[in-house]
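Notebook, bench 3.
Goal today: get a predicted structure for Adenosine 5'-phosphosulfate reductase from Marinomonas hwangdonensis so we can plan the truncation constructs. The sequence was checked against the plasmid map this morning, with no discrepancies at the termini. Length recorded as 244 residues. Pasting the sequence as submitted so the record is complete.
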Amino acid sequence: MPAFDLASFIANNKEDEAQKILHSAMKEFDNIAISFSGAEDVVLIDMAIKAKKDLKVFSLDTGRLHAETYRFIEQVRKHYKINIDILSPDRETLENFTREKGLFSFFEDGHKECCGIRKVQPLKRKLDTLDAWVTGQRKDQSPGTRNVLAFAEKDSAFSTETKDLFKFNPLANWSSEDVWNYIKMFDVPYNELHLKGFTSIGCEPCTRPILPNQHEREGRWWWEESDNKECGLHIGNLIPAAQA
């Protein structure tokens, strides 16, 4: 396979054409997968399934998700008739962590170590097997960490000395309203927690509904400063290597 020309890809795609970006990425890479957890990601699955039947999708099961989220994952699997690769934390690492620090240490010393074990490590294992991945990140989800988000990029967090990994963010310029308009227009499945005031949905202990006029990320890790609301899956606030 010829080397991927990122500059050419960016030049030949427009940042406001999400479906074209996604379909172009899937044409460029056979070994590409969509990371699935929330509403934006199902929009991507819906777009992708229209162009490619053997779609690769993976999801992180931290062991601390809401029951509604587990039902949502299964709903998406059945609705689109796809396989979803469920990624779990390393058993021994997680058992040692919870034995030493208990189940709620993040309330005392921050969420990054827990996220490193439950999210970043499993993600890294998966990305080591891929050439490219697709995320549902949007610029307006987390001002300060995602406001310069590119729709296509070399993944500087998970590329290695011997292998470049590329990341595509087709919805980078979408708003929450854009996402929900698409969901309603095409009858896309969504997490029932959205009907209970939840916007950005993560692990059960670390997620709560938001109040009117609050930013959507304010329901995540609410006990921490607002500039710290990333879990390490994306370069903006990647956790230190010692914790990953």
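The beta strands are 32-35, 57-60, 84-87, 132-134, 152-154, 166-168. Confidence is low (pLDDT under 50) at residues 236-244.
Flagging this for group meeting.
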